[in-house]
Automatic annotation (TrEMBL):
PANTHER family: PHOSPHATE-SPECIFIC TRANSPORT SYSTEM ACCESSORY PROTEIN PHOU. It is found in: Cytoplasm. Plays a role in the regulation of phosphate uptake. It comes from Capsulimonas corticalis. Pfam families: PhoU (PF01895). It comes from the Bacteria. Its main location: cytoplasm. InterPro entries: PhoU, PhoU-like_sf, PhoU_dom. Belongs to the PhoU family. This is Phosphate-specific transport system accessory protein PhoU. Keywords: Cytoplasm, Phosphate transport, Transport.
Amino acid sequence: MQTTRQTYHEELGGLERLLLQMGTLAIDMVTEAVESLKHGDLALSEKVIANDDVVDGMDQQIEALCMRLLALQQPMAKDLRKIGTAMKVITDLERIGDHAVDIAKISRKMVHQFFISKPLVDVSALGEMTTSMLRNSLEALVRHDTNLAKQICVDDDRVDDEFKALREQLLSPQREDISRTAASAYMLLAVVALERIADHATNIAERVYYIETGHMEHLARAHRLEGGAPPSGE
């Protein structure tokens, strides 16, 4: 017969597995949204939009489990930080799913309204950097890796640089074709969504640092105050 403590640790393990499942789905949604935008793939767009309900359902499921653990087990110290962090992380993951849906809807609009099957700017690099940050943030969470969490904040600066470059291209005075003005505006919204996803990945990385150290640090801001120097070994 299982003890209350054994059940508690099993539920903590289940919480981590659910977080990973939700995070994996969020990664898939972002990847597929970017692919739909790059290739005008309407089937992928619809798949991403449909998965939004799945992410929302997992959000509610994980929140309910966290509340149960808090109410019945009264966790302390690191376990309390894990559960509190889980409730923060699912908010970031749910919003990441929302941003992926926004990109998918923009992709659909590009094809149906503007008859454009390829993006006005190359989003490949930004998409790859963003999904890599999100993947690494989940890996840092599972592995309890504070060094990887710090690296994600370094990568966020690179995403910001790429975002600014794409924004300049989309706002460039050379885009004088009035028929492309609205399409450029929607494309800019997609690029903004990718930049926001990277910000949410950074939030998750900062929560990893909090779980492991007990200190809430704004790692991205600290990195910038230090001059943006990359970690040793780069």
